[in-house]
Design a protein that fits this description.
Its main location: membrane. By secondary structure, the chain is mainly alpha-helical. It has one domain. It contains ten helices and no strands.
Length: 253
């Protein structure tokens, strides 16, 4: 348990290091904020639209509750609405990161290269990844990761109807699952520069799960704050680069 807590705090520290790196170089912060701004507008619009129609959607997905008494029907549809919004935000955040990385591929590759080459000793024989290839890899990975998120979202949605558990344990599990998927996206560029594919990335991060979650959970939670992603995403990209570099070089003990 002590090892897990220590590793988790190490991961949190890597995110903090990411913030330190971009704040010391405002150019990196600005570069990372531009594509994030474009995607933020789309995501906020989607959340607002969902919030406006959530009562109708919750009613549509719970037709079986039409004949129940008022209190039970209201509680069931509240749970349904809560689960729907949670699933939308979780999947939307993964899409947000994926779309932002695709749009801003050259920007985020510049951040990753600057962090590794300037602060971490560089990457010998690093592959030069074109924007087109980066976008294709990012789109392919996004489809797979969002698919995984949906597979988890379905049982979590159903569990959301369980009193108490649906409003306590389920959100925690959802955060852990989606934070893990977010970490896979945020470490894509360092692995791609080394010619390593998605399955290698997933296995590497899984080996040090507590470190990965320590980095990814606060990143995920901070990105839930409106407009925070403009600052968080560049920092998370820098921190994710440090995380990937250290895991690949066994520098995290």
């Amino acid at each position: 348990m002590i090892r897990v807590l220590r590793d988790f705090s190490t991961g949190v520290g890597l995110l903090g290091q990411g913030f330190s790196l971009v704040f010391r170089s405002p150019k990196l912060l600005l570069i990372g904020a531009v594509p994030a701004l474009l995607t933020t507008v789309l995501l906020i619009g989607g959340v607002i639209g969902l919030a406006v129609w959530i009562d109708e959607i919750a009613t549509w997905v719970t037709p079986f509750a039409d004949d129940w008494n008022d209190g039970l029907r209201a509680a069931t549809r509240f749970a349904a609405g809560f689960s729907i919004i949670g699933a939308f935000v979780a999947i939307g955040l993964l899409l947000f990161t994926a779309i932002t990385l695709i749009i801003g591929g050259p920007f985020y590759e510049h951040i990753a290269e600057t962090v590794e080459d300037t602060h971490l000793g560089g990457v010998p024989e690093a592959e030069q990844v074109s924007w087109l290839r980066s976008a294709a890899v990012g789109a392919r990975d996004a489809v797979l990761l969002v698919g995984i998120a949906i597979l988890f979202a379905i049982p979590l949605f159903a569990a959301g109807f369980i009193p108490v558990v649906g409003q306590t344990a389920v959100p925690v599990v959802a955060v852990l699952v989606n934070a893990s998927l977010l970490a896979i996206e945020l470490t894509a560029i360092p692995f791609t520069r080394r010619g390593l594919k998605l399955d290698v990335r997933r296995r590497t991060l899984r080996k040090r799960r507590a470190v990965t979650l320590g980095f990814a959970v606060p990143t995920y939670l901070l990105c839930l704050i409106p407009l925070a992603a403009l600052v968080v995403l560049p920092a998370a990209m820098a921190g994710g680069t440090v995380l990937a570099h250290r895991l690949l070089h066994d520098q995290i003990r």
